[in-house]
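Consider a concrete sample entry:
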Amino acid sequence: MKHSSKWLHRATLAAFLVFIATGAAHAQATRTWVSGVGDDANPCSRTAPCKTFAGAISKTAAGGEISVLDPGGYGAVTITKSITITNEGGEAGILVPGTNGINVSAAATDRIVLRGLMIEGAGTGLNGIRVNSASQVVIENCLIQNFRGTTPSYGIYVAPSAGTVRVTVRNSIINANGAAAAGGGGGIGIKPSGNAYAIVDVDNVNLAHNNTGLFADGSFSNYSIWTTLSNSQVTGNLFDGVFARANTPGEVRAVVKNSTISGNGFSSTTAAGIQADGAAATVRMQGNTISVNKIGVLLSNSGTIYSYGGNIISGNANNGSFTSTQATQ
């Protein structure tokens, strides 16, 4: 009896140790690494890094961080939890002809940070970063370019269908995006649907040579788009530099300040540096230079553009005019 009891005790202990070891093997780390010479079969530690973002994300705990060790191409990734993907040096590339670079489909409480990435569509990519759902997405120090596949094709496409999504874009270049069809995509597209809100802040960003620089489209949402563009350059876009479109019940409230809007709109007779289209589209402007566009500012279908002072509108083929000039307080 004693021997049986001792054997049972040892067997139970052995099983427990196997369980613990198995759990440890499958535990997710709060920080993982990728390398151009890594392997997704690795645990994604600093000394045994993974090869791709997709390989690392499954081994990274929610709220954790994926860091880039050296230059490389790290592939497309879908994000469904709070995560930071960061590159502090070298080139961390995502080359995605024919598809999306980064899909964000996270919970309404999740925060995602994307830092230091070069996302390349090679002319046929769909969207550089597509944001479907999350609490907050921060995109900084990124280069996103050449997404010109199937309409719409944006460098960054914010398209939630429920809840409130907050997106911050800063210190980035968004260049040469948008499908060939007129009005097809561009640099940043904001297009919520259903009962969704989108709040998008863009600061120190170069939106250049896209179809449309920034397009805030409230046509498909029952709620609002709030967007701010500041300290940025919106140049050489084929159609509008900044285009706000909305009719009730959805609305667009846009603020453009301390930015340069130039060289836009020359592929259309109805495009402008800044355009507000629809009775629920309002743009407020302060301290901008709007020059060398097809039309400087354009009001369409009862859209509204207010000046709060300090705007220079000069040298456009047609300067256009504000709805009115408002006093500052």
